Amino acid sequence: MLTRQARLWIWVAMVGTLIAGLGLLPAFARDTTNPGSGYINQQTMGVFIRSHRVDISISNQIARTRIEQVFVNEGSLPAEGTYVFPLPQGVTISDLIVRIDGQVFHARVLEKEEAKRVYTGIVQQMRDPALLEYIGTNAIQASIFPIPPGGERTLEIEYSQVLTVEAGLVHYVYPLRMNHVSRLPVGNLSIHVAVDSNDPISTIYSPTHPVAIDRQSDMKFVAGFETSNTLEANDFSLYYGLADDDISLNLLSYRESAAEDGFFLALIAPPFKIDRERVIAKDVILVLDQSGSMQGIKWEQARDAAQFVLEHLNPEDRFNVIVFSTGVRPYAIGLQPASAAPDARAWLETLYSEGGTNIDEALRVALEQNDREHQSIVIFLTDGQPTEGITDLPGILSNVEARTGSNVRFFTFGVGDDVNTFLLDELGQRYHGTSAYVRPGEDIEAAVSSWYRKISEPVLTNLMLSFEGITVYDVYPAPDHMPDLFAGSQLMVVGRYHRETDDITLHLSGKVEDQFQTFTYSDLEFRSNAGGDALIPRLWATRRIGDLMNAIRLNGENPELVDSIVRLSIRYGIVTPYTSFIITEQDIFTEDGVSQAVAIMQPTATAMAAIYSGSSAINVAQQSGNMANSAMVATLPPDAVFLTNGTPVPGNFSVGGTALPTGTATVTSTPTAAAGYLMNGTPVPAKCDVCGTATVVPATTESPSLAAYSSSPSQGEPMQTVRPVGDRTFVWRDGAWIDTTFDPDTMTPERIIFLSEAYFALLDQDERVADYYALGEHVIFVLDGLAYEVVPD
Asked: Which of 200-204, 270-274, 347-351, 542-546 has the lowest mean pLDDT?
């Protein structure tokens, strides 16, 4: 039997542990073996979540959320307590059901003032402010049966809520953040959403997680997300638009204050159901590298990719296939009707790889096929450098420019590491297309077929977006250089704005066959006061940094661009391998410190603009492209580990769920093919030249058990040293979390004692500080232009 004191501390720990149904053990809970020390030993408690499953069904804005969590006690003592689940901001629920191991239990809904008292009481008892981030929300509270050592409990919660519509968008949020209340990851996490609407659905977008989406009809879709060994840094957020236009445009905006320019995100989508008559007929020109280096599996996969494209031509499409090595060989003279595709597929089966690489001649023959009255898509696939004919990059690009009309779209695929990334990226960027890279061991056919499904049915081409009544700037993609709009796709536009009037109108124009059409949108809310989704500024910064990196790569190092990347990285916490000084530099808050950081990046930028081929060049090209086109915020995972030089462990850095190579490590396997886990659960690739002496736990097919996380950093030193909070970024420096908007040259912070009357008085005055307080006992932050420093008592 536990002593009363031990049971009290376990109750407190369980509240912090199960808060939001997410975390396992609070990062700074108390130690039952030494109550005076102020910390719980995580091995003593031993409770973690093996699985966390969320099923959400939304019917005409009524959302029913079903949660199932399996808690496992690997500790030596029974664990029991009170479960507290914070609800999303402003949510009122009904039809609440709580089950523990199948039995229905009574649960209470705490209104936000009562929930606030619960949170602050826990904070005062545990001296752990992590729970303060939930201030201002309602909560569900239920008692939990004891979990015996080695035992488990299954907790189920069901509740309903009404979702509101704002600016034509329905927004659902599930509280999923756990990095403030736990260092232990959830074994398996899955979220499934099913939506059924009475109105047609246009855009579907999650700014927080890489969801897979299945459109079942114009009024139904399902979306899903699944991961393992995770500590989530963001709540799960999903938007979907209700269509009332032929081409829908939904807009979200964010403003930190009325005195500062705002940020906007526009989501543009065609109807789900497109009449066949509206699909624009296109000319598809396949240009395949047949040189000797393509022999074997590469040529077989490239040929299969071409076969897929030919098999999926629309009836009105035309095509040709051009293979090249030392010479160039077209399938036919001139474009052929889609009905001739079977013969072309048979022709491809007779070919094999041999000879050199005459890229310039291949592109010349391809562009001779171009009919400027039709939409032309050039699919260019190569595995090497130009070795025959004209081989210099400016010469090839100049020849392409002379032969290309505004109707041509280039989509390039680089196979392997020995490709000219500058050539492929320039072709994709200049001509409204994309570039992609298929790394050694990856499937060429899978990459091309997945891409072609998305662009096979163009609906609107030569797009331009114009704004009336408002000034916009730093817009991505550029309003006069936007990609085409395809059936089943959506276009995301992010930028900054300065309001001029309340009468704001957007015009989207584009070409359907040979006719231009214009779509007009009014009654759009560009916020004039503070508020909105705080992820929008970070998404904008992600795209801007990616665009600036591309500009440096393709046009050469530019001091102004380097300065912009450094300042954006510091402000928004977007860490790339080229700005890892954010982790290591002590002085990034002053103007002198920023200048030093810029000087540190200059040599890297120079090298980035000089390397155009090889594994490192492709790493940079992929990272820049992913960021410049990201649909999600570039963030570090909450369990991110950095080496002593500030380099992220390979496989950790991601954009939109895509792992980005560090550029400084030799990685011969994908991030999921881990040789082991760091002590915080981070997968370590099978080969990692920069991992140094990092302790590695052998990988298994199962989730790592609690024992895999028995090692923790030194007292008070967090594993994660950069943390996004809303639209702010905090960096760990000298034992404190410091807001990167804090300027020590011009600001003198007001000192506030942790958990003092003044501490809670400021919280009562402005609940925004709750998110900053949640970081710990020593925090420096800026609020409405004034600096504050929370210090331990």
From this structure: 270-274
Range of the domain at 79: 4-242
Q: Give the CATH number for residue 488.
A: 2.60.40.1230
| Residue 104: CB atoms within 10 Å | 10
What gap in Å lies between CA 207 and CA 239, rounded to an integer? 8
Question: Is 293 found in the same domain as 364?
Answer: yes
- Give the pLDDT band (50/70/90) at residue 582: low
Phi, psi of 348 (to 5 degrees): -60, -35
The candidate with the shortest Cα–Cα distance to 711, out of 695, 700, 691, 698, is: 695
* Same structural domain, 221 and 202: yes
Going by C-alpha positions, the residue among 120, 60, 63 that lies closest to residue 87 is: 63
**Of 402, 435, 456, the domain-final residue:** 456
**pLDDT recorded at residue 633:** 58
Instruction: Kindly give the pairing relationship between strand 186-196 and strand 47-59.
Output: parallel
In a domain, 714, yes or no: no
288 and 369 share a domain?
A: yes
Amino acid found at 303: R
Same domain? 504 vs 556 = no
**Beta-carbon contacts of residue 569 (< 8 Å; ≥ 6 apart):** 545, 575, 576, 579, 582
> Is 51 inside any structural domain?
yes
- Give the tens place of pLDDT for each residue, 488-543: 888 999 999 998 778 899 999 998 877 889 999 988 889 999 888 888 999 999 99
Do 130 and 268 lie in one domain? The reply is no
Sheet containing strand 169-174, edge to edge, reads 165-166, 169-174, 236-242, 201-205
Q: Are 500 and 584 part of one and the same domain?
A: no
Are residues 267 and 223 located together in one domain of the fold? no
Q: What is the pLDDT of residues 188-215, one digit of tens each?
A: 999 999 999 988 898 899 988 989 999 8
pTM of this structure: 0.77
Task: Give the whole-angstrom CA distance, residue 723 versus residue 738.
Answer: 10
Q: What Rg value do the Cα atoms of the chain yield, rounded? A: 28
Helices (H), 105-236: 112-126
Residues 375 and 323 in one domain: yes
In 3D space, the residue among 651, 688, 674, 680 whose CA is nearest the CA of residue 577 turns out to be 651
45-49, 160-164, 303-307: which has the minimum mean pLDDT? 45-49
Neighbours of 260 (CB within 10 A): 11
Q: Residue 466 has which token pair? A: 């114009």
Structural domain total, the chain: 5
